[in-house]
Amino acid sequence: MYTVANRIGRLLEIRVASPFSVTDAMQLFKQIYKTMPRDKGQALVMADLRLLRIVDPEIIDIVAGYMRMDNPYVERNALLLPPSGALVSIQTERLLKAQGAESRRAFHNRKDAESWLGEACSAMEKARMKSFLDEK
Length: 136
Description:
Elements: E1 2-5, E2 11-17, H1 22-35, E3 43-51, H2 57-70, E4 74-80, H3 86-99, E5 104-107, H4 110-118, H5 123-134
Parallel strand pairs: 2-3, 3-4, 4-5
Antiparallel strand pairs: 1-2
Helix pairs in contact: 1-2, 2-3
């Protein structure tokens, strides 16, 4: 289960929840490519993974490959992890290491994720990011 949207400026909103299959991962990145705000400069990506539980290791490999291809188009990417998802945290750290960009970071705390991504956002993008994260 996933959603992808670009409602304001360069902010790309991604939400991923369990269950999440290999097919979902491939479709997610097709949607990201269609939605990525490339004409506005590098994207600012907020990925809300708070409803994601365990992920098949094959999916991590697929997602890492897609993320490496996206690196030139992403200024910053905050991945907001589940509050008690130790396994998802380990998988996300593996994912970030595999794709090799300092512009992507994982957070357990919403305020930290908003603050770090918000450093690069306009006021309107910050407001939209807050609204996006308030949605369930």
